[in-house]
Amino acid sequence: MGDEGGRATTVSHGDRPPATVGSMAANSALADVRTALEAERNDLVSQLVGLGGATAGDHYDANFADSSQVTAERGEAEALAGRLRETLVDVERALGKLGDGTYGLCERCTEPIGEARLEAMPSARRCMTCASRR
Ligand SMILES: [Zn+2]
Q1: Which helix (H) or strand (E) holds 104?
Q2: Span from the CA of 111 to the centroid of ligand 1 (angstroms)
Q3: Distance between Cα 104 and ligand 1 center (Å)
Q4: For the chain, percent helix, then strand, then coil, each to nearest 5?
Q5: With bands split at pLDDT 50, 70 and 90, how would you rate the model's confidence at 45?
Q6: Where are the domains of the chain?
Q7: Residues 27, 35: contact at Cβ < 8 Å?
Q8: Measured in angstroms, how far is the CA atom of residue 110 from the centroid of ligand 1?
Q9: In what helix (H) or strand (E) does residue 67 lie, and over which residues does it extend?
Q10: Distance 112 CA to ligand 1 centre (A)
Q11: SS3 of 105, please?
Q12: Residue 134's pLDDT is what?
């Protein structure tokens, strides 16, 4: 209810185009990451726009008699928007690091984050060890 299934679209591995390029050049891997990050950024932005429209639009005017429910739904949307914004910051940051050549390195210990982790989470900022240590 009220979620509209928008959250499910953020996690979508498995539908990447088949690798037709024979070379395993590091550059193509990075281009792949950039594409994935840019797609995620677009997705996050459009979700945020959608949420903004939902909270400011006239959806709520239709039945604002039940104002406690409106408040709850709005709070939920704002919480979701907050999480989306945090993820967006990470994605932008990862794109920035792609630009200056530090992408894939842990921000805490500067060791490589690891391919598997980056594949699962392209916007990861720390290696598995540092992330679990906090
Ligand atoms: Zn680390």
Answers
A1: none
A2: 6
A3: 11
A4: 60, 0, 35
A5: very high
A6: 9-132
A7: no
A8: 6
A9: helix 67-100
A10: 8
A11: strand
A12: 62
From ligand 1's centre to the CA of 116, what distance in Å?
A: 15
For residue 3, what are its two tokens? 């979620």
Kindly give the distance from the C-alpha atom of residue 90 to the centroid of ligand 1, in angstroms, as a whole number. 16
pTM (predicted TM-score) = 0.64
SS3 112: strand
Report which residue type is found at 80.
Answer: L
Tell me the CA–centroid distance for residue 130 and ligand 1, in Å: 4
CATH of range 9-132; options 1.20.120.910, 3.40.630.30, 1.10.3900.10, 1.10.10.200: 1.20.120.910
Residues 67-83 have a mean pLDDT of 85
Q: How confident is the model at residue 56, as a pLDDT?
A: 46
